[in-house]
Each structure stands twice: as structure tokens, then as C-alpha cells.
Amino acid sequence: MLTASTALATQRQKQDHFDAAAFLAASRSLMRVAGQRRRYWEMMASVRVPVLLIGGEADRLVPVASIRQAAARNPRWDTVILPGVGHTPQLEVPDNVIGTIRDWLGRITPSAR
């Protein structure tokens, strides 16, 4: 895994559109979240707008147990876990994701139909 991750990082750095500063900021953000779990849960609970949480059952970066835990802690949220889908549902099953979002928007904004 380490060898594959190193190879991927090396490949990304060679790409013209690679933004090292953004990549570093995202990595640091993840480390802060991991280190301040209680604050992270509090931030999630403070969201007062409708939320659609979409996750992939086969996600290797965000375990499905974490998605289920977030859903359980935030029962007002709508949660969809897509079977056989990994970390990027919008790329892996875009039509499914679009349909899921459309259905959800139709439920939360009935006047928009």
C-alpha cells in the first residue's frame, strides 16, 4: 500500500494541474479532524440545513461504518450508501448519484417540481 501510495503521489506531482498547496491543505485538514473527533461531531450536529450524505459501501478511505455512525448521530440527515461503490460515487456511478440527488431535492423542495 505504501509503495502504491508513493507512486500515486509521484504521478500526481508530475501533472500540470496538480496543486501541491491544496493537496497539503486537504491533508492537514484531515489530520485535524482525526485529532479532534468530538469537535468534528459537534460541527456536524450544528448543521441546520438539509443534508444528503452519499457514501460508497466499498469505500477504502471512508469506512462504511463511519458513514453509518455519522448517519446515526445525525438522524435528520438523509443517507444513501451505494452497494459496491467506492470513494468517488459521482465518478463511478454518476447516473445513480444524479438520480439520488434529484429524488432528494424533489422531497425537500416539493414546490420545485
Question: Can you put this structure into words, describing what you see?
Answer:
The protein has two domains: 1-35; 49-113, no CATH class. The chain has a two-stranded parallel ribbon with strand order 1-2. It has helices at residues 2-14, 20-35, 37-45, 64-73, 89-92, 94-108; strands spanning 52-56, 78-82. The longest helix is centred in the first third of the chain and has 16 residues, at 20-35. The model has no long low-confidence stretch (mean pLDDT 86). It is built from six helices and two strands; from the N terminus they run H-H-H-E-H-E-H-H. The relative contact order is 0.10. The chain is mainly α and 113 residues long. It is globular and about 50 Å long. Helix 4 (64-73) links the parallel strand 1 (52-56) and strand 2.
Overall average pLDDT: 86
How many angstroms does the end-to-end distance come to?
47 Å
The main sheet comes to: 2 strands, parallel
Give the structural class: mainly alpha
Strand content: 5-15%
**Cα radius of gyration in angstroms:** 17 Å
| Total DSSP E strands | 2
Main β-sheet, spatial strand arrangement: 1-2
Quickly count the helices. Answer: 6
The helix-strand sequence is: HHHEHEHH
Count of the domains: 2
Q: What percent of the residues sit in helical stretches (DSSP H or I)?
A: 55-70%
